[in-house]
């Protein structure tokens, strides 16, 4: 009689022990995997900054100046003085009827050919402002499609640790945009306007948000009126002035504090708040103003104002200096050092700075 041999299986206790060991291994490995993924995203963000900085250098090589921080033809005033007309980028004008020569564009537009986006640059209609380029578009005669340049997502202007699209209908739905209905064409990097107050937050009920939120362009007399004991808090003052501003034309020779000691670009703060006004961000790479300029008056990650630098990388913010190098800056950097990095001709040394 043939005897059947029984095979011993796992007991319940043994199975539970195996499952517990596997769960423990996963728990140990998951943070390492997440750190590796974040390191890769941070490196990609660093490459974005490097490519944008090189594009700015190439623009300077061709034009002997850096592009204007933003182009505005018209201005309005608050109780301090003159600032860029907020309607200039937002107004939808008829084709060939841009009577006020509205523009409202940012420095980003001018470097598109230097980041392999020459076709997109060529579709931009320079006798139209930002809103009209985005809402009317321009026909691509080759494909028959209509191209809307400012609503085009450009990968190089998105930090992968934060997003890969505008997220205009989700996380960043509260952000101010040229047209509230635009859902693409966002931006996570900004040019440094200095270490002082850059933007007017004046009440303006003609604007969609009820606030002006545009870049100051004070006249010399208006700027002088803000000076107390030889200093002014505004970024146009020599104590605070940075590389980019309204209709600016900065060359590297103007950066007297040294190109290795002055910030040209940074990751920027993106609030998801709907209020208060100073914590509502703007978005759009083509739009000159709060969506493409920042200040070093507040330390990075201070959460004080939409004009500050910040990132989605733990404990750091990445910047591109004027010499084209990219540095990792601790969010705990000494505030005075951070402010000195933001102005280009103050004459104060940047002490003990070597990045993170």
TrEMBL record:
DUF1559 domain ranges (all copies): 34-335
SUPFAM superfamilies: Pili subunits
Domain of life per record: Bacteria
Database matches in Pfam families: N_methyl (PF07963), SBP_bac_10 (PF07596)
PANTHER family, alphabetized: GENERAL SECRETION PATHWAY PROTEIN G, TYPE II SECRETION SYSTEM PROTEIN H
Protein name stated in the entry: Type II secretion system protein G
Biological source species: Maioricimonas rarisocia
Organism classification: Bacteria, Pseudomonadati, Planctomycetota, Planctomycetia, Planctomycetales
Gene expressing this chain: xcpT_52
């Amino acid at each position: 009689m043939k005897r059947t041999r029984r095979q011993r299986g796992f007991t319940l206790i043994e199975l539970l022990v195996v499952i517990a060991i596997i769960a423990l291994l996963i728990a140990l490995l998951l943070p390492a995997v997440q750190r590796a993924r974040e390191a890769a995203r941070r490196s990609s963000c660093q490459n974005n900054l490097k490519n944008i900085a090189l594009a700015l250098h190439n623009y300077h090589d061709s034009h002997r100046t850096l592009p204007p921080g933003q182009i505005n033809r018209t201005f309005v005033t608050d109780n301090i003085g003159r600032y860029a007309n907020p309607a200039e980028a937002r107004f939808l004008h008829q084709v060939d009827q841009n009577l006020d020569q509205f523009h409202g564009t940012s420095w980003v537009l001018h470097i598109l050919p230097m980041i392999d986006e020459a076709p997109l640059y060529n579709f931009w209609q320079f006798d139209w402002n930002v809103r009209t380029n985005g809402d009317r578009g321009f026909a691509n005669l080759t494909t028959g499609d209509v191209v809307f340049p400012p609503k085009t997502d450009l990968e190089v202007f998105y930090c992968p640790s934060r997003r890969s699209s505008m997220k205009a209908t989700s996380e960043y739905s509260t952000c101010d945009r040229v047209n509230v209905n635009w859902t693409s064409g966002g931006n996570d990097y900004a040019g440094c306007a200095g270490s002082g107050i850059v933007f007017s937050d004046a009440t303006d009920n003609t604007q969609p948000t009820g606030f002006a939120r545009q870049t100051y362009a004070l006249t010399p007399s208006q700027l002088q009126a803000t000076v107390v004991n030889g200093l002014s808090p505004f970024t146009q003052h020599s104590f605070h002035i940075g590389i980019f501003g309204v209709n600016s034309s900065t060359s590297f020779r103007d950066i007297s504090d040294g190109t290795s000691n002055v910030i040209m670009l940074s990751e920027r703060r993106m609030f998801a708040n709907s209020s208060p006004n100073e914590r509502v961000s703007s978005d759009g790479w083509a739009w000159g103003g709060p969506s493409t300029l920042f200040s070093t008056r507040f330390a990075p990650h201070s959460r004080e104002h939409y004009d500050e630098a910040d990132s989605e990388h733990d404990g750091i913010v990445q910047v591109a200096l004027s010499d084209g190098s990219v540095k990792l800056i601790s969010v705990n950097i000494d505030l005075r050092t951070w402010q000195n990095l933001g102005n280009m001709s103050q004459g104060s040394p940047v002490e003990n700075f070597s990045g993170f």
